[in-house]
Amino acid sequence: MDILLMGPPGAGKGTQGALLAEALGLPKFATGDLLRDAVKRGTPVGLKAKAAMEAGHLVSDDIIMGVIRDELGKPEAAHGVIFDGVVRTIPQAEGMERLLAERNRAMDHVLFFEVTDEEILGRLVKRLAIEKRADDDPAAVAVRLKAYRDQTAPVLAYYEAKGLVRRVPAVGAIDAIASRVRAAVGR
Fold it and tell me: Where are the domains of the chain?
């Protein structure tokens, strides 16, 4: 089963993705984690990603798709994957569709984590205090939310047109949200 998690920064994709991956016995892929791992391992795609990141450029769609292709080729990904925010643009959505089709698979579910901006800001301010992540500063969060909405609205519409989107209210206790997530995928 291949499941894409979508939602704004701080919506709980990482937390819920890990819980869902454990419940279903599937690996969880997150773009940042995959890129850092590819760079660390010195893979050809990782070397391209490293060069882009060191030059201060965004990592291109073809590099992102190269990393995903490499990961999908691993035995642990043979029965499905939880994709944590991996698809951020229409070209990436189309690329993901092609990569899965190469394996006679298709995206089974797209879970969209619905949460208010106020809730997101509260969560990220708490995370900032704990983890000291610069990108969780309120001004940075505002920029990230705008970029997310600008980029993601077309991607969400793309998957909605395919009938794949399941909206999950992502507020409340972690266990309650996890129950909603499992219900959304029929587990």
Answer: 2-179
Q: How far apart are CA 47 and CA 57, in angstroms?
A: 14
Six-digit token string for 107: 């995206």
Residues 6 or more apart whose Cβ sits within 8 Å of residue 18:
28
The superfamily in CATH containing domain 2-179 is: P-loop containing nucleotide triphosphate hydrolases (3.40.50.300)
The closest alpha carbon to 181, from 29, 8, 6, belongs to: 6
Backbone angles phi, psi at 28, to 5 degrees: -115, 125
User: What is residue 133's predicted lDDT score, i.e. its pLDDT?
Assistant: 65
Q: Which of 137, 141, 150 lies closest to 117, judged by CA?
A: 141
Confidence (pLDDT) at 179: 97
User: Which residues does 130 contact at the CB level (< 8 Å), separation at least 6?
Assistant: none
Report the largest interatomic distance among the alpha carbons of the chain, rounded to a whole angstrom: 45
pLDDT at 134: 63
77-100 as b/e: b if 16+ CB within 10 A: beebbbbbbbbbeeebbebbbebb
**Chunked mean pLDDT (size 10), the chain, 187 residues:** 91 94 95 81 84 71 87 94 89 94 97 89 77 69 77 90 96 96 95
Residue 28's DSSP bridge partners are 82
Residues 6+ apart with CB under 8 A from 185: 1, 3, 20, 24, 108, 109, 111, 166
